[in-house]
Structures
1.
Amino acid sequence: MASSKISIYPSSSSSTSNSKPPPGWLEYILVNYRWVIVIFFLLPASFLYDIYYYTRSWVVFRISSAPHNHDKKVANVQRQVRTWDGVAPMCTARPGWQTISFREGAYKKTCHKVAINLVDVLRIDTKTQTVWCEPLVTMGQLTHTLVELGWTIPVVPEMDDLTVGGLVMGTGIETSSHKHGLFQHICLSYELVLADGSLVTCSKDENPDLFYSVPWSYGTLGFLTAVEMKIVAAQRQCVCVCVCVCVNRFVKVEYKPCNSLENLVSTFRAETWKAEGNQFVEGLLYSLQSGVVMTANMCNTAEIGKINEIGRWYKPWFFTHVENYLARGECGVEYIPLRDYYHRHTRSIFWEIQDIIPFGNNVAFRYLLGWLVPPKVSLLKLTQGQAMKELYEKNHFIQDMLVPLDSMKEALEVFHKEVKIYPIWLCPFKVEANPGMLRPVGGREALYVDIGTYGTPGVNNYHPEETTRRIEAFVRKVKGFQMMYADSYMTLEEYREMFDHVLYDKLRKGMVCEKAFPQVYDKVNRKFRI
């Protein structure tokens, strides 16, 4: 999941036996009948919020008021920074429950909060093939705006509610990342308000040290106010279905079932390295010895009878749809509308929603209430009680570990031994040999794979801290990285071993950030999160 991923909750049926009884009737309902709260309260609230949010975004973009208002909003951020009293370090005023990560930063309670209301797409320039966005623009909002105009960004992390700012300051990944890199690698420039209240723009040519240090810094070098990104053309097709109808933009997806770990790893590598190149490569592992490798490419035509609008509310969850190819043991080809493909895991929040609404993939539920799914993660967080947090802590494991592609087989065996969670999400990506937090193996551009595990461990000896630390140690050993939206139990020394702090430390000192912002470790480590 990305910083691109999100965290939900353990199912009550699998977890309550290991926990103390909740202290009150409300806690009891929230734990044992979570689905009641979700269906009757959170789903309608999420739906109404989406209507408001997308309508507002559409109107603002159409009347082109965002660029003018942007200057005013940035000036307000600068004013707040310049009047900072210098006692406590600064952070954004955005409540912790609104973020996509399960945890809330404890630093929010003690830091000086700066309000940042930057939520708009500012400008699309098809001549230079760029888009300017404010940091709280979501992936759903951005793809809706761009695809409608025939454009897209090269890397679209799949969850609708992921924000541009979160993907820049943290990280983001998608099945096109083996071609284009992580989300940071499609960014051309950043606009930030620094500790002294000044407004700067940085790029590879202007303030390059700052440009390369912003990703993975989690807001500890300045406040992000705008991002310039590359855009690419999204191809348009017309398909005849009885009559000639323009159906939209499509992705041709090919499914390749694999019935051994060796076969899956070799197929995954071959498709990633393929000479002519697949635009998208993805894998879903359903057991250590079985999975499906998917490749996809935007195309100019779609075969009648093979179009699958997987984003429709009544469609089965994508991961269950893919598993059918494995069950049948045969390859397959279908055409998915581009935006449906980008957000194929959104409705089921990968596979986490099955622990919240166990019957959510039932055909009757999908047809009657599927149009309300998914609930907002922020609302799920806001309505959880202490009992839910404790259940989650003891019985749930969510991690994205980024390991060199050559270490993929060994890494999957480690995950099987330590947590035995399936499905596992597999996504290849490249790490460029640029300055900054990420050091690719050998100091040269290298291919990695994101191993995403989200769910209840299937082993008897699972312990949140001890198990995670063993996996973190393995990832450090193979020169990999951990996505820091998830729980990390590394010491400061281990964290600095995994991530290159040379340029980051230089900038923190040179821009007088020590008192103005927390250190990145003090924002991402488990002991600083609640």
2.
Amino acid sequence: MDWMAGVNVPDEVGQKSLTKALAEKRCIPVFLDEEIVHQYYNGYCNNILWPLFHYLGLPQEDRLATTRSFQSQFAAYKKANQMFADVEYNSKMKVGWFLHTPFPSSEIHRTLPSRSELLRSVLAADLVGKPEGVEDQGKLTRVAAFPIGIDSERFIRALEVPDVIQHMKELKERFAGRKVMLGVDRLDIIKGIPQKILAFEKFLEENASWRDKVVLLQIAVPTRTDVPEYQKLTSQVHEIVGRINGRFGTLTAAPIHHLDRSLDFYALCALYAVTDVALVTSLRDGMNLVSYEFVACQEAKKGVLILSEFAGAAQSLGAGAILVNPWNITEVAASIGQALNMSSEEREKRHRHNFHHVKTHTSQEWAETFVSELNDTVIEAQLRISKVPPELPQNDAIRRYSKSTNRLLILGFNATLTEPVDNQGRRGDQIKEMDLNLHPELKGPLKALCSDPNTTIVVLSGSSRSVLDKNFGEYDMWLAAENGMFLRLTNGEWMTTMPEHLNMEWVDSVKHVFKYFTERTPRSHFETHIEFGRLQARDLLQHLWTGPISNASVDVVQGSRSVEVRAVGVTKGAAIDRILGEIVHSKSMTTPIDYVLCIGHFLGKDEDVYTFFEPELPSDIIPAIARPRPSSDSGTKSSPGDRKPPSKSTHSKKHGSKSSSSSNSYNNNKASQRLSPEKISWNVLELKGENYFSCAVGRTRTSARYLLGSPDDVVCFLEKLADTTVPNSSSSS
């Protein structure tokens, strides 16, 4: 465990001594010079990250000065983190990262200039203390919530110390006949101290009988005294306290006692123990352990906790506390009255719940849970890694390609054949990514591969027909658009492969929702197959599930930057048998396919395209195609979507058992006719396991046999494959 010393130890002798002492506790100190500490901790952590994580936004006083200081502070922040990493670097080290506050919403976090760099750094950890996990570039980081606790026994034991008992006695005498309310906070913008005091003022206004029977003790520990905003806060609090004491106080008693300083541990425990009502009004708080400390000291008194719903502790102590919105002064004032007038039975019940939680969810238990979860995460990661497919054996794939007689290449498009895009989230690159373009270095290899009559290439993509036309119109290949729902040979017309039984009544209403969000989301785009940019994905999904698809037979597929709505059962794998049928029919293919290469960066929902061809799978999924022969007028041009291949291919056993086919109708733009098919029954695939290469691009969690890292790797492989191609060789298909 690395540990920042927390003190300035400038001399080498002192550093060696401290290092030796900490080694006994299995800790390693990291010694940072004062300038680095000032820049990274007081600067970047406290001035940039802390306000952002508490929804205060970035500093606004002098934007130019802020930008300049940000750069130097972030450089110091990176340097400090690097120093921690350098102290004990080990590639097999288990890394757990804990954030002592809820992570801000994306709308807040995306204002941070270094947002992508920070997030990717966090995802280098095995465990993030904050759903099951986040996958980034093939690495899975487990994400979980770990609410921290306190050393409750330390507070409970302190109440038995003679000095604490004596101090408690003095406090009871000092405030005899009055209920004691307590606030303990850092004098900080997020702590809601002005809101607390104003709510107390409103309570006194509306409850005259309580004015001489209650006192509010507010401990406000000064922080960041050199920051103008905090100086203003101090003046504001003092002004409000003075006004209320002048309005409701007497010569001998004041309703508010305000201290601008901290108390020592024993004095604080005594104060907690004599308090009747603790008031926590944080506007935003990661946890707020003051509420835990108060509960730990209340076993005798069983006082009431009023707790802001914006404090993290509200999730764990909410059942026993009175939860309030600190911005609602009227509500907080009413809660003060409820707490002061609460029956002893209800106080006992509420306290019992919270006391049990504080005693069982301690800081020690938190640490043990976190470390245990980290160990489990690493073990699970090792198991996952053991299941990660190996890299594509390119030489073997090329050798078997050259020896086969009828080859089928199925290629994805996006993140497979596309030009490279910078993944750091720069705006120009987002626009570039949306405008999908074929990798410029692939044009030669694709032309060479397409020129081989023994090779059939299918580009299978979720993209629209127009996108595929633009990128692949010049090549002699098959294009399967919108997850295989539309198909064409590049010198032919688009036809639909959509099964006739699909209910598509939901499409128009879903289009309406997508168009609504597209108009309101910069850089988003909308395609007929319904794909959408990521920024408003959550709101979009809520609109869909509560509206047009609430009772529809559809699947919603969410990608990294898209939301896609499909009819149930529409996947790339499900479309393959229909695509194969049309290809076999069009090419009058008589020789079985004996080599298949399937490469893509497919969504999990579409990975059935890999398993479709697995020779080891049950033989009844391998299709034997029965195709009708077109009638003499089938050459009539049809408009996109008019012509339909059979909705279901006939299946046979692997080794040639007989099969039959039903009649299938074709529509052209002149008339709809029922054609009598000529039945052909044979095995389209004679595929041995060693001649099948399924390969995922950039995804380690995959059902594919092999991996390639990026589109650049795909380019290199296809260039090698194209070099083995002999154009205009005699065809065997």
3.
Amino acid sequence: MNLPLSSLMDLLDEPVPGVGTYEDFNTIDWVREKSKDRDRHREITSKSKESTWALVKSVSDAFSGWLLMLLIGLMSGALAGGIDISAHWMTDLKEGVCLNGFWFNHEHCCWTSNETTFQERDKCPQWKSWAELIIGTTEGPFAYIMNYLMYVCWALLFSFLAVSLVRAFAPYACGSGIPEIKTILSGFIIRGYLGKWTLLIKTVTLVLAVSSGLSLGKEGPLVHVACCCANILCHLFTKYRKNEAKRREVLSAAAAVGVSVAFGAPIGGVLFSLEEVSYYFPLKTLWRSFFAALVAAFTLRSINPFGNSRLVLFYVEFHTPWHLLELIPFILLGIFGGLWGAFFIRANIAWCRRRKTTWLGRYPVLEVLVVTAVTAVVAFPNSYTRTSTSELISELFNDCGLLDSSKLCNYDNANVTKSSNELPDRPAGADVYTAMWQLSLALVFKMLITVVTFGMKVPSGLFIPSLAVGAIAGRLLGIGMEQLAYYHHDWVIFRGWCSPGADCITPGLYAMVGAAACLGGVTRMTVSLVVIMFELTGGLEYIVPLMAAAMTSKWVADAIGRESIYEAHIRLNGYPFLEAKEEFSHKTLAMDVMRPRRSDPPLSVLTQDGMTVGDVESLITDTTYSGFPVVVSHESQRLVGFVLRRDLIISIDNARQRQDGIVSASRIFFTEYTPPQPPSSPPPLKLRGIMDLSPFTVTDLTAMDIVVDIFRKLGLRQCLITHNGRLLGIITKKDILKHVAQIANRDPDSILFN
């Protein structure tokens, strides 16, 4: 049945569902997505002048971005509050239970009690340890063994539940999520990574993993949780549902929200998103991130998960200003942080590679249980590793007052007058030396166990363990400096500013600086790190020490290896991520990298008017390429445009179903006008609508560093290579990544995806 040309269905007029979408593990075409959004915006603006209803639609379209940010902030803040409260309660459950109501954690249980004393404020008759409940006593070896056993059993139960839920329901919920989110923001598609199952399981298992006492934090995974919230809420708005580039702007803002609720640091969150995770960050996204982080922090503050009506995780009040000469120990802490960061990245990547290639990777549940058992058994005897890491950091940051019951504050107070607010440097008591021994052991333990823990099949963040390592090292150095200043105040370095009876050195400040240095060494953050640290502690006047330590640690770590832990994990997993910070120094040309190479078969192309549906279908079947250049003819090889494989398949299938008479012999036209067909031939298929008429091209003599720059800055998927206007070959993002890997003497086949 031959249809007249006029009644031919032109695919330009009626968009085919599915055209313009992407397959899993593919990269989006930023240029195409941005131009699609510009066309949509132009259409709305031009229509808004025609009627009031169109104007209302235009206003609601402009407002939808802010509304979405509000919803993301509210949802992430609420989830973070719930995670904080649950994790606190379940961590205390390992040691005992509250008789007033099992849902109270230790602190809340003893709040209402009238029998607590100031010295033993965490002891009250309402809170029973497991030994007290089971064998009726809190003293003696049996009680200790009972508590020890219960601690290990609860830890094993929590971690077993966490790893089982992750394996059964959401394999993507493991790890920190930041390497994958970086990759997704650069334009890669991982379906299900930000889905509702991942959100649900990650939220539940994060509480379990943190409560099990493993050496991990909840801060990195909270970024993943916030991005899941953003992705799910994007589906409420057509503008974001249908445009992958717009959705990535929202996810950039969500990353800021994640850090905002993790630390109570809204501005630090925005800077973290800008400095560490985002690939494309226009000004509009900056304002929206700021707003979303504000809403999230406000929501978290109204939930008040820490019960101290502060948003800040580790609030500090230091009374002493720091002295210029103290920059020397601060810079030493920076060097330590950089060395630890570089060591940690190398050791962790080596361990993860071992996990991928040996039997370890086949038994993730067993691995988690063994690591949990070792952690719990070694952690229980030492009071500094038994408590949750956040409480440990809080105690290390603390400035000792007269009434502090902590071992770290057991100084000899014989010469102290109680009237003054400031306490002079005092000689350390016996307990301080015991605490220093315990902290030294805790430091070695944390450094080793974190290497093995990060990357297991449970949600695991890295911020808190890194802060803990640095805080312990800093506190030890701080106490050492304090005792030096007390016993040797006539030394050259102390003379003039540290007289006897003065409060010269604050060990808590050293802990804070050390924490910043170690986190900086692992993640290579600088600006956002300093802002997060002073928002986290409220220590505004200590910005210079923090800056000095963060910068030193970055320099030292960069001298040993250029990658942060997240970039190292991206490379380990083979994600197609073009790092913006990497320098490209080799002198190669586009023709050296393009395909086909000299030994390869010629490039697979479509012609603009000479192929039938059958020809195109057999070309699709015989090749695995994700797109095809369209040329005038095989002889001339002059370029017309570029067509994506997915769009071709969808359009041909759609035409066969909805357009009468389309058979394998029907000719395909990519031209603007279809020439008249002989009466006996089947109707033609016009596919100009799915062709990219302005594909990116460079000549064969373009330097590769310029090509890499174009790919980075425009987020291209592929670039066509021409010579005097004739098509020679193609370079894809994967070719560039393989080329960069080859230059760096790495295995080019480690890049797994398109």
